[in-house]
Amino acid sequence: MKVYDQLGKEISTLTNEKKSTGTYQYVFNAVNIPSGMYFYTLQSDDYIETKK
In whole angstroms, what is the distance from residue 7 CA to residue 3 CA? Predict the structure, then answer.
C-alpha cells in the first residue's frame, strides 16, 4: 500500500509485503506533509485499487 500526492509522487509506503487473507490496519502519519489531496494504491496479485 502506497500513498501518492496529486502529481503522482510517492509520499509513503505503508506496507510492501505479502499478507494472508484478513483485516489489517496501518497508521499514516501525515504530520510532516502539506495539506491537500492524497491517493492510496492497494495492490494484490492481479488486483489494483486507487482511491482518495
Answer: 12
pTM comes to: 0.77
Which residues neighbour 4 within 8 Å (Cβ) at sequence distance 6 or greater? 10, 11, 38, 39, 40, 41
Q: Which three cell numbers, joined as nine digits, stand for 25?
A: 490496519
Task: Give residue 32's domain range.
Answer: 2-51
pLDDT digits 0-9 by tens, 21-48: 889 898 888 898 999 999 999 988 889 9
Q: How many structural domains comprise the chain?
A: 1
Q: Cα(47)–Cα(45) distance, rounded to whole angstroms?
A: 6
Instruction: Name which of 25, 23, 28, 30 is nearest 13 in CA terms.
Output: 28
- Phi, psi of 22, deg, nearest 5: 160, -170
